[in-house]
From TrEMBL:
Protein name (Swiss-Prot/TrEMBL): COPA/B second beta-propeller domain-containing protein
Coiled-coil ranges from the UniProt annotation: none
One example of a Gene Ontology biological process annotation: vesicle-mediated transport
Residues in COPA/B second beta-propeller domain copies: 1-63
Higher taxonomy: Eukaryota, Viridiplantae, Streptophyta, Embryophyta, Tracheophyta
MF (Gene Ontology): structural molecule activity
Species assigned in the record: Nymphaea colorata
Cellular compartments per GO CC: membrane coat
């Protein structure tokens, strides 16, 4: 799947158990990891579901 973050500066590609966050204009890699699902918050933070029992939440600085 392909999803833009709320301010439009970043885009995430999620599939095959992985996600990669790119800058929207230059398509530079900003972050990546394993994920079954990916969601953006309205403030720009994001969360990934790594398994049926594990969810990770990240801040705007990709940490």
């Amino acid at each position: 799947s392909l999803k833009h973050n709320p301010n439009g500066r970043f885009v995430v590609v999620c599939g095959d158990g992985e996600y990669i966050i790119y800058t929207a204009l230059a398509w530079r890699n900003r972050s990546f990891g394993s994920a079954l699902e990916f969601v953006w918050s309205s403030e720009g933070e994001y969360a990934v579901r790594e398994s049926t029992s594990r969810i990770k939440i990240f801040n705007k600085n990709f940490q």
